[in-house]
Write a structure and sequence with these properties.
little secondary structure, two-stranded antiparallel ribbon, 2 strands
Length: 82
């Protein structure tokens, strides 16, 4: 059995091709979507307690339509009646 010899490659000149690149799915499409890392194209809505705009997060992807509060503190405070 022959010993395995690993070759060293010049990492500065060649990109790594042994692993697939991580991809991010776009939330929007069209002229305002931009590249996948563009945070300006994410949907947002106001917090029910403080009124600040909250932007879509990957953690909220499954239940974005049910998200009402921007933080645990706002959730504990509840809906503000002005």
């Amino acid at each position: 059995m022959k010993p395995v010899v690993k070759r060293q490659r010049d990492t500065a000149s060649q990109p790594r091709t042994d692993r697939p690149r991580a991809t991010v799915q776009r939330q929007g499409s069209g002229a305002g979507a931009g590249h996948p890392g563009n945070k300006a194209s994410l949907p947002s809505k106001p917090c029910m307690a403080c009124g600040r705009p909250m932007t879509w997060r990957r953690r909220w992807a499954r239940d974005w339509h049910e998200v009402k509060y921007c933080s645990d503190a706002c959730r504990r405070a509840g809906v503000r009646h002005d």
